[in-house]
Structures are given as structure tokens and as C-alpha cells.
Write a structure and sequence with these properties.
The complex is a heterotrimer of chains A (about 230), B (about 300) and C (about 120). By secondary structure, chain A is mainly alpha-helical. Chain A is about 80% helix and about 0% strand. Chain A has helices at about 1-10, 15-40, 55-75, 80-110, 115-120, 130-185, 190-225, and strands at about 45, 120. The longest helix of chain A is centred in the last third of the chain and has 55 residues, at about 130-185. Chain C has helices spanning about 10-20, 35-40, 45-60, 75-100, 105-120, and strands at about 60-65, 70. Classes of the chains: A mainly alpha (about 230), B alpha/beta (about 300), C mainly alpha (about 120). The interface of A and B includes residues 3, 72 and 228 of A.
Chain lengths: ~230, ~300, ~120
Amino acid sequence: MRRILNVIRLQMINRQTFIWTPLIVLAGATVLSILVYAMIPVDTPKYGGAGQAPLWYFFAIGIGAMSYTFPFSQAMSITRREFFLGTMLTAVLASAFMGVLFLIGGGIELATGGYGVNGYVFYLDWLWEAGPLGAFVVYFTLALLLFVAGFTGTTIFKSWGLTVLTIVWVALALVIVGLGALVTKLELWGDVWTTVVSLGALGLALWGLVVVAALMGVSFLAFRRTVP
Amino acid sequence: MTAVIEVQNLSKRYKDKKALDDVSLSLEPGAIYGLLGRNGAGKTTLMSILTAQNFETSGTVRVFGESPYENARVLSRICFVRESQKYPDDATPRHAFAAARLFFPHWDQVFADRLIAEFQVPLKQRIKKLSRGQLSAVGVIIGLASRAEITFFDEPYLGLDAVARQIFYDRLLEDYVEHPRTVILSSHLIDEVSNLIEKVIVIDNGRIILDEDTDAVRDRAVTVVGDAATVDDWAAGREVLHRETLGRVASVTVLGSLSAAERTELTASGLDLAPVSLQQLVVRLTQRADNPLKEEVH
Amino acid sequence: MIEEGKPLFLQIAEHIEDSILDGSLAEETQAPSTNELAAFYRINPATAAKGVAMLTDKGVLYKRRGIGMFVAAGAKDLLLGERRSAFADRYIDPLLAEARTLGLDASDIAALLVERAARTEGNPA
């Protein structure tokens, strides 16, 4: 247990990776958005997707955790299980941190009426339908999902090679397209949309967590025999 | 003495190649082992499997009597820094050493600081941007300061210049004397390490071709030089490792040590004796293993 | 200092013997420790220990409990005896072999010996 906690400390030795860089990316994207909003001469609320910028960064650090930190952890004589659990815990903590930032951002936007220019990066209505907790879960899940996706993809790559990874990618795409075709064929889009709306952002986020768990399972299995 | 590492019939096969072929070894605690062999002979593969970073196709590995795979009890007592070790993205040496301090129970920060100064490692510069020598120094420092009961050094001094290498050998010996541990040092700079290592293991094409005390091996061979006919005459019936000729002069390297009487007899017949360094011996043994010679010399 | 082709521990032992013979390491004084030897020659301490063990077996060194290895009384004489018996094998036989190659006979060698001995004895070492 102590060693797993030490893995978290290991990941945090370089504060940049999990704390500063996402923060800077988020801050930068937000400031840019505010400037753009200020320049648009319209009074209706403006919404932007700057909030997703740090999420893609989480995808990158997921890749990095497997590509660089894992081989290093082997040199530190850490077992695979310790590394996996410690790294996932770190990702959870970092995602929670992002969630908190998201809430703070939303709070600021509410209080200042969109930075005085009626522009919103965080307080996107649909995401806050279920209240601040819901918004937190949404952002948390997105960050964690992207980290785990990067981590899992890289694990598959390292364990089984580029070919297998491509096959997995293509297979996933085919499944999605296939489902889409099926839904179109059976004219179920209306039902699909109703379900999405009733689930709301929070409901989707919870399903997202299920996907996260599945990905974690896959990467753990692949990872048991990865050579650094 | 109970072996600290016990390997039995270890084989590692990749699709088309056998990286390790029926390797059996028994390593005693507290000795410095030299793991010698050509590039691609299997040294790194062997060490990776011993540290559970890679997996055997068949055979057994026991470290401290247990299987090392996913075994924190065993792994926390060993240290293996690879030749081209990866470090976390954007990490600095300071980060790397801080990490080592977290995971190696016997980590000695004072020792590490001294080594950092001696090897002139820039602590705050990104590891990505370090020179090859500085990168090797980081690995060497982690291995030395870890004081891990079994420490592997996988040619970590590639990139270190002769001065830095000598610092490494000196500090390794000094620390080993004060704090004995089992050290496995892989190298192809054999003559440089020959005085350090107590035991020699030579691996070639995945097979162990020598596994002995260094001192026992040291007078294991002799080179006899002189008139080709006389030399060949003398070498008949002996195990020849290598033969070359230049005109009428032949130089033959033969396995077996000579008594003082035999030596006198040789010089009396006008032949010269040349010693065979450990490096030469290993090279010849390896060459012979790769290209089996005819036993008789005609 | 370290030559190839001869077991290291033997060479270490011989160096210690040399210092006993030339007087720089006196009887009943402390011999260099295994670790000191290892550091000085930059060799594995196990090898140094082997050399010391060999000398102990021969009776050249002995152990004083808690202090270290000491040169035994009579070690110098012991070594002199040993080296003198080996002298003929080590030095005379090769000399004769080379002399034969050069066509020098025993009386030629004797004359050379006397001449060279006079020269070195005349000049202080």
C-alpha cells in the first residue's frame, strides 16, 4: 500500500505533468476565449469549447505514463500492479482537480456574468443541468476517460504492436458506424435522442465511467506482460 | 552458500530467434560478476528476465529463492538500470534521484550527492537534453547509490569517457568494500573490468560458454609464437583456440596453463610465450563457439 | 604493475613477498589489509583476500585477532629459501637457453657474470 502511494508521489515529483501544465493550458484557453468574446459585438450569451483543451492534454499524459513513466518505474523496481494502481489513482486525483477547476470557473462565470462580456467557457447550461455535482462528474469523467484511453492505446501498442492497435481502432470505428447504420435503418434516432436528453450530461458521464472501468480492465490485462 | 540467483534451463525465444538457450546459472551473494559477451549475445535479455522486466519462454528463475514476477518483496531489493533507460517525459536528474530515493530502501543521498558532483550531472536540466555521458552518469549514480542487494549494471557507462569510467570503477569498488552487495556488471570492455570482477560469465548467442572465477581463467590460455613447424609440432594434441600465420611464423593460442618446466622447454626450442589477457581469451572462446575449429593442427 | 596471464592473487602475493624481502615490510609489522590492497591495485577485494590467504597458508603472514594481518617472524628467511630454490629455474635456465641461441657457452657466461657483478658492486645501488 505504501508503495502504491509512493507511485502517486513518483508521478507528482514533476509537478508540471499533472498540475501545472493542465492548469496553464486551461487558463490560456480561457483567456483567449474571453478576448475573443470581448471582440464579438453581440449581446446574447456566447459559448465556447475552450474547456476541452486540457482534456486532450490528459490524453497525451496517458500516453506518456505508459511510454516513459512505466519503463522508469521498472528501473525503480516497482511491480506492474503497484504502478498501475498508483498511476490510475493519480489520474483520478488529477481529474478531480480538473473537475474542481471547472467548478471554480463556472462559479466565476456565474458571478461575473460571463466575465462581463456574457461569454462562457465553463458554465454551459446543458452540463450544469444536474447542478454543480453533475458538472464536476462530467468534467472529471472526460479527463479520466481521455487519460485512460491514451494509456490503454499505448499499452496495446507496446504489448501487441501497431498492427493490433490499428485493428482495434478500426474495429471500434466499424462498430460505431455499424451501430449508427443499424439505428438509421431501424429509424431509432428519435428514441436515441430522447434517451440522451433524459440521461442528461450527468447520466452520460456515468456511462462514461463504465467505459473508463472497461478500458482500465483491458489495459491491466495487456499490461501484465508488457516489456518496458 | 545459498545462491542469491538461481537460473535453471532458461530459454527465451522470439519468433525466429533464440535469445537465450538453456541457460543455467547459480550466483552467490556478495560477489561482483562480470557478464561478458558480444552485442546481441543475450546479456540484456538475461538481466531483464532476472528482474521480471521480461519473461522466460521456459525454465525457472529464482531470486532470493522466489520468483521475481510481480514480487515486491524481491524486487525492492534489486536495481536494474538499463543501457538506454527511459525517464518520465520532461524529468530532470533531480526528479530521477528523488524517485530513486522513494523506492530503494537503502538509498544513500549523501553518496548520491558526492557522485553527482563527481560526474558533473546538471541536476535541473531536462534528461532529454543531456549528453550521452551525462545520461549514463544518471543511470550509474542510481545503481550505485541505491545500495540494492543485487545491483545490475547493463553497460551503463557507454557514453562515459575514460576518466568517468575510471571514477565509476573506483567508486564501485570502494562502496563494495564498505557495503558488500551482489553486483552483476555487463560489459564488452573486458580488460577494463577484468580486475574488478571476481567471477566471469561469458554468454554467446544465448548460451553460456564460460562461468568461472576470474583468477582461474586468467592463466587458462597461452599464446606460443615462432617458426610455424615447431609451433604446430608443440601444439599437436592440445586444444587450439586460434591460429594465425605471417610467412613462416605462426602464432597459436592454446588452452591450458604451462608449468615452469614446460615454459623453459619452450623457450629452449626457440619459441616465444605471450600471455593471454582475459579479453583475448573471451574473444577467442567466443570466436571458437561461433566457428568451431578443427581440433588437430596440421 | 599488473601483468596479464598470471592469476592476480599470485601477483598480489608476490608483491607483498617482494616488500618483505627488500625490507620495506618488516617482520612483526602490520601487512596491508585486504581492502587497502584492493583499493591500491584497483582489484576485487576477494582477489586480494586470496593472495593474503595464500601467504597465510605459507606461513608468511599470520592473523592477530581484532587487529589484522601481520608479517610472521622468520618470513624473510622463509621467502629467501623459497626464492633461492626457484632461482635456478626462474633465472638460470632461461639465461642458459638464450645463451645457447647466441652461441655462448658456460665459461663465456661465467666471465660475463663476474664482469657485470663487479660493475654493479662497484656502483652503489
